[in-house]
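ok so I'm stuck.
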Amino acid sequence: MAQVEISEQRPASEQADMSETSEKLRFEGTVAVSGAVTGQMLSVLFAEESTVDGKLHFKGAVTIDGTFSGSVTTDDVLIVGERATIKADITCGSAVVKGEVTGNITARDSVALEGHAQVRGDIASPTLSIERGVMFDGASRMGTAPAKTKRGGRP
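replied:
not stuck anymore, here's the structure
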């Protein structure tokens, strides 16, 4: 069951324009969304100012630009934006990392570390590309088998 809390109760007429207030939503438990989730909805949830903790499962490409901790599982594409900070183990189809990730990344297809990405953790993927300027502190395994062991000091 999901719980949604608004820090300050206001009449519906005053809540219509929340862009000028500092109200926050807090979700506890499992939050399931049925039907189509638009990119605009996801950009609100994972925007630069957002902080989300939990387990993320999704279909389709998702970009995270905020702070996320927990775990990420998808068969599709995860894009970690330039200003994102992720503390999670990631299992995905493909990952494009431009921000900061602390945790292991296991990808079925590919992992690309771009720009000024910072990754602290192991990467298992058949294809790995690392641009100049990226910081990668971990081990990489190229192949189809996911990493089974965690090295000391890593999530």
